[in-house]
Amino acid sequence: MTQPRIAVCQFEPTVGDVDANLDRIERLAERLPAATAVAVFPELCVTGYDLDVVPSTKTTVPGPVTERVQTVARDTGVDLVVGLPEAAGDDVYNSLVYASGDGVEATYRKQRLWGEEATQFTAGSEATTVDTPLGRLGLLLCYDLNFPELAVDYGEADCDLLAVSAAWRRSFDRDWRLLCRARALDQTCYVVGSNHLGSQSGRHHAGESLIAGPRGDVVAKTTDGVPTASAAVVPEALDVARERNPVRQSRREGADASRR
Q1: Does the model's pTM come out above 0.85?
Q2: Residue limits of the CN hydrolase domain (predicted)?
Q3: What is the pLDDT tens value at each position of the chain, 260 positions in all?
Q4: Which of 43, 61, 99, 209 is the most buried (most CB within 10 A)?
């Protein structure tokens, strides 16, 4: 039996051109291996990472943008994790949606805003999980990755995977790789880190999208000229990692002891 796979995808969005970016997402999803069940795309990839275009490109969830993402998911048979600016009443969030062929199944709102993001976005306040064909998935966005306590919430929710969508700059590329691997190791789960490629509005992004396994090793990564990578999600690998590194069990035992 073929193991189902998770994929990570990166590209250089065209700032402000939602249709062109959705077309690019569709083309990348169409080229993924047949066993791919879920694909993760970068932060704000629908609009490009440019805060100036947020007011003109914000969209409701669900809405016309997520309807197009749902169509791509249905046509390709791949569930998609995609970043966009979400309009919700008077607030706008830097959000990540998980969409299947049936529609939006989860929406995560970035909790830790970076730099001037706070001038355009309201911070989210909750972890978001979704049960997928590969296991339970938790969602994070870019700067969230720096905060171990946010990842711990997902460990406590028994997540098997974390999807981290980012617009991570070249000047911090070593941090990106280190933090993805660290969150995989300290939460004994797969971490799927999708980053922007190329330059947008003066920001130079690192690419370096990767999948880290539950022992903190990189099991797949993008390479020059190849914008996608995928890996099988192996339940036995999760079991072995959690036996060798029983941090989840120890954390719960410690919490129980403190309550006695």
Answers
A1: yes
A2: 4-240
A3: 688 999 999 999 999 999 999 999 999 999 999 999 999 999 999 999 999 999 999 999 999 999 999 999 999 999 999 999 999 999 999 999 999 999 999 999 999 999 999 999 999 999 999 999 999 999 999 999 999 999 999 999 999 999 999 999 988 889 999 999 999 999 999 999 999 998 877 888 989 999 999 999 999 999 888 999 999 999 999 999 999 999 999 998 876 666 65
A4: 209
Provide the residue range defining the domain that includes 73: 5-259
CATH of the domain at 205: 3.60.110.10
